[in-house]
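Please annotate this fold before class:
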Amino acid sequence: MAAQKEKKMDTMRAALKLGDVKEGEAFDRELQEQRKQERIFVREEKDRERREKQAAIEEEERRKEKEKRREAKDRKREEEEEDRKQRKREKKARHEKEEEDRRIDKLAKKRSTKDGERDRDHRDHHR
């Protein structure tokens, strides 16, 4: 019978989350103050840990944002460099085309002059 009563009390303590309670502790002011200070300490410790975790999360977010800005800056720099190289290639191609056109014009002019001389010589020869 006593064992049944004890088991029932243990079940009741567990249900009420009373833990290990002894008779008369509720009236011991020093013990109650000590437990109160322990609860305050535990709560403050949890708050401190929460603030530290939040600060770490915010720091990580700032670090990631900074990394994103750096990557964007690097991408922009690479794009500008590629644009510069492309403009340089295009300028070189235009210059080469102009040189080729000048050579062709020069050859055409030379041929034209030679043809003109040949025609003149041919006319002079047949006269």
